[in-house]
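It would be a great kindness if you could assist me with a short task in structural biology. A protein sequence and the structure tokens that stand for its backbone fold form the material at issue. I should value your view on which stretches of the chain appear to form regular backbone elements. The record follows directly beneath this note.
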Amino acid sequence: MTTSISDAYRLQPQGASFTLSRGGRFVLSCDAEGRMLTWFEDGTLYKRSLDSRVLARRAAHGRRERWALDDHEAADMFERVRTFVARALDEPLQKTLLERTVAWTPDRLLAERAKFARAYAPVGILPPDQYFSVVLQATLGCSWNKCTFCTFYEGRPFTVKTQGAFEVHLTDVRDFLGEGATLRRSLFLADGNALMVANAKLLPMMNAAKRTFPNRDFYGFVDVFTGQRKTVEQWAELREAGLRRVYLGLETGHDPLLAWVNKPGGRAESVELVTTLKAAGLNVAPIVMLGVGGRTFAEAHVRDTLALLEALPLAPGDLVYLSPFVQHDGGEYARRADADGLEPLSEPESELQFDVLRDAVKRAHPFVRAARYDIREFLY
């Protein structure tokens, strides 16, 4: 039987990971231990989290569809992947990599959930460029946790880990990731607002993290209210310790809307903090939301957010994230919107905000990338 080029298996080792493909219809990527990362099958992309949850995505009728698989569906998909790899063992390919993946049965992959839970509390959210970082939870929860639109840390009191507890966490994360850690070339200090921790506590944590996961830079979130508590010199200390980029949920440049969603800070404070961070030699990634505040706030939100983005002293190496607002049914935002008669924007109206804000970033900061940040596609 003749095998056409389109039917042939192709194995591509990439140091810390590898891909196995067959034509354009099937593409599998795995970490160094053979655990599935992504699986593309007939137009659908499946992404597996470290705790073996699976998110699927495909384009249909000009729109992107997303859905989560339940455990039974995930197990079926894992078995399809395993069968795909097992058949490749008959090909003249590097057997060691393939055998590692075949050893990951559906039950074994699903059992990663319990191992993940021993190393981590739930990871609420990450910026898209940090989806493949080593997340290190110096804190749990968010120090504010009262924004009406956010449910990432719901029901979790904010706590700062002791140095001893953090070092135990480092060991647990290292043991859980195993060789898979080689794929993850940065360290993300979590959870929300971890960078607000006083340097006297944060710097020893960073030093311990560098010993466990060497040759990696640090990244993390801070909000405007708590970020302003640190001086240029204190932020520069963190830069010297390896901090490279700070992610800031600015959300909007319209102060009345910021107050309406119960978030501290404001446009002037946002410019001041970004100026401080840049003076300390750090890169920044401001995050603004698309569609937040609905039609009631739409005009003012775009106008004042444009002014905010233009006023920020951004430079090469910085990012601007534009994040479509996602309303959670039953949450405080939904209750407040209903009480105030706020109408949500349609998807095309939200997309128009994306285009306007992205183009404004291009004009004001030609060397800064503006990118989409869709929280519905987050998986760690």
The domain at 120-377 is CATH 3.20.20.70 (TIM Barrel). The two ends are 42 Å apart (CA to CA). Residues 71-88 form the longest helix (18 residues). Residues 89 and 95 are 6 Å apart (CA to CA).
